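Many introductory courses stop at the sequence. We go one step further.
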Amino acid sequence: MKGGGSGVAMKKDKEYGLVSGDEELRILRRLDKEITDEEESFRTNAKVK
């Protein structure tokens, strides 16, 4: 069930400002993907050397 307006928990984030729960999940997924991509890049570079 989607919450609207006052029903959505808001969180203050230093980097992103005020974010809703849904937006927080999006941010976390994006950061997780960036970390995963970076780790794969390190592994690929290690194999090449």
